[in-house]
Design goal:
Length: about 160
């Protein structure tokens, strides 16, 4: 992000200098090329994720590479009651999500002991369950579809 802003500022200064020296029109290719580069970088980072409620309703969202699935829910204002109650501190299990077997097997990181302990407290646990706050998006996850259990358990209230 900082690089993009720096490029924009540099391009803006170069454009302004050129305009002052040579009366270059404001629609110079320098400005539009810089804008297009920024947009292209942004598109590369986008990861589309669909959340499927227990009733089958699909919620299409997008995040960016490096976001957790909890970030995606929060940043897209997805209405999942109680989801992510502990804000990713691994103390609630409300971010329980169920993956398709193929997607589950491709996840790069396996759950640690803390996540497994929290998963044990989740309702509707399956062999392909994970905690959304522990899943970090990568570009190859684009098109991911995850199922949201019908009930959640906030382990903090036990
Ligand atoms: S948000 Fe609480 S365990 Fe993931």
């Amino acid at each position: 992000m900082l690089v993009i802003n720096t490029c924009r500022n540099t391009a803006r200064l170069a454009l302004r200098s050129a305009w002052l020296r040579n009366n270059v029109p404001i629609s110079s290719p320098i400005a539009s090329r810089t804008f297009s580069l920024g947009l292209a970088l942004k598109q590369q980072d986008v990861v589309n994720v669909t959340f499927v409620r227990a009733n089958g309703t699909k919620i299409k969202t997008s995040g960016k590479v490096g976001d957790s699935l909890l970030d995606v829910v929060v940043n897209n204002s997805v209405d999942l009651d109680g989801f992510g109650a502990c804000e990713g501190t691994l103390t609630c299990s409300t971010c329980h999500l169920i993956f398709k077997t193929n997607d589950f097997e491709k996840l790069p990181d396996k759950p640690g002991d803390e996540e497994l302990d929290m998963l044990d407290l989740a309702y509707e646990l399956t062999d392909t369950s994970r905690l959304g706050c522990q899943i970090t998006l990568s570009k190859d996850m684009d098109g991911l579809e995850v199922h949201v259990p019908s009930t959640i358990n906030d382990a903090r209230s036990a």
